[in-house]
Amino acid sequence: MCGICGQFNFKNHAPVDAESIRAMMRTIVHRGPDDEGLYLSGSLGLGFRRLSIIDLSLGHQPMSDEKERTWVVFNGEIYNFKELRQELEGHGYVFRTQCDTEVIVHGYRHWGESVLEHLNGMFGLAIWDEPERKLLLARDPMGIKPLYYASRNGALYFGSEIRAVLAGMREKPETDPLALNLFLRYRYTPSPFTMFQGIRKLAPGEMLSVQNGHVSATRWYRFEPKPYSPMPSDEEAVEMLLELYKAAVKRHLISDVPLGLLLSGGIDSALLLALMNLYGNVWPTFTVGYGHSYKDDELEDAAETARVFSADNVPVMLSRQTFEKTLPGIVEILEEPVATSSIVPMYFVSQRARRDVKVALIGQGPDELFGGYTRHLGVRYGSLWRKLPEGTRSFLSSAAGILPRSETLKRGVYALGIQDRIKRYQHVFSILPGETVDSLFQEGLLPENPGDMVFKCWDDLSPAIGHLDELGGFQLLELRSSLPDELLMYADKMSMIHALEVRIPYLDREIVEHVQRLGSRFKVRNGCRKWLHRRVCRKFLPEGILRRKKRGFAVNVVDQWFREAIGARMEAHLVDESSLMFRYLKPDVVRRLLSEHRTGKNDNHKILFSLVVFETWLRSLR
Question: By C-alpha distance, which of 3, 285, 307, 10 is closest to 167?
Answer without folding.
Answer: 3
